[in-house]
Amino acid sequence: MNPVLCMFSIMLIPLAAAGMALIHQGLGRSRSAAHAMLATLCALAVSAIIFVLFGSAWAGVASGAAHTFSAGGARWDWLGAEPFFSHGIGFDGASAIDLSRALTLCLEMLAAGLVAIIPLSAGSDRWRLGPICLASALLAGIVFPVFAHWSWGGGWLSQMSVNFGIANFADMGGAGVIQVVGGLAALSVAWVAGPRRGKFSDDGIPAAIPGHNIVQVLFGCILALVGWIGLDSATSILFYGAGLGQVVGVIVNAMLSASAGCLAAVAVTRTRYRKPDASLSSNGWIAGLVAGSAACAMVSPVAAIFIGLMAGVLVTYAIEIFELRLQVDDPGGAVSVHALSGIWGLIALGLFGHFAQGSRGEHVLAQLVGVSALLGFVFPLVHAGNLLLNRFAPYRVDDDGHWQGMDIRELGAGAYPEFVVHADEFVPR
Question: Is residue 417 a part of any domain in this protein?
């Protein structure tokens, strides 16, 4: 492991958070912009504290202490059992093991923050700040550590070759551990909070509520690219032993998958609507990054282009289906961009990845097992948690808050005090 390269890569990850923050606040209403940015900071802050104090113990490390049980002739490593408050981690770098554990804690602390930020996009314009902090604690303290342990911390998904004779589940850049977990949490939040006032008419027809600052959204895409490169590189080094040459491949493939996703969305929206749609094109860019992060450098550049291209096409149609058919009000497209694109990326890794051992069928099966664990366990867990929290701290702002905006209602001041931000002629009251 190259600790200097790994540390430098980890230091880039906050740029992914900054990019996502600009994207989800730019795609929301102007009168909720400051609230969206503050919610991002609060989600990062809560996640960092809760993960370091509690979540890191559950996430564990490979070959570390863990809670296990035996069933069906296999040993199931299901949860880490490290000391709370990160007491088992030394920051003096006295040994290679201590350094690796410290870097893992640093990486996963930031990764937990990214997971907590993703649902903010789905809850734009109506999710209250207090419940956001509680939901962030849930994700960082329980949900993210569980799947992180299964995938990165020596859990059962990373031991399927020993227990079941098939390939191990792989997720080099966190498409499943971070993106799908966050995307499924976004779907749960959208359901629990309900649609924005005026979004759907009585007959279910959605009203168009355009984002207030597409320029910031597009700038956020560039910041996210840099952060994603850092994230993909750091996880590849720490959990899959990537060297300098593979990190170069991570950078190339990240750029190619994002580019293909963006151009695919541009082409699809131009074909369907006669002009490219900037917001959907930005979603295509992020969807390409999400899908490509599963494989990182484990696929060829040509495969990375194809993975990103399919993600860009998928996201343009998925956003429409969720809104028109399923009546899910997801202003930033977080469910489609992070959950669906992440799932596609995990499956694509099995289809196109370069593996030293195991057949192609084994690797596809292993990836499908991981996807099934996400849909069959992680989503019910996070949705049950959100339903429980909603009973004690209602997620949705009241009707006056919808009209005033989250900035005035929750913060007492707007992000743009010199401008009129209540021109809602496109939304019925």
Answer: no
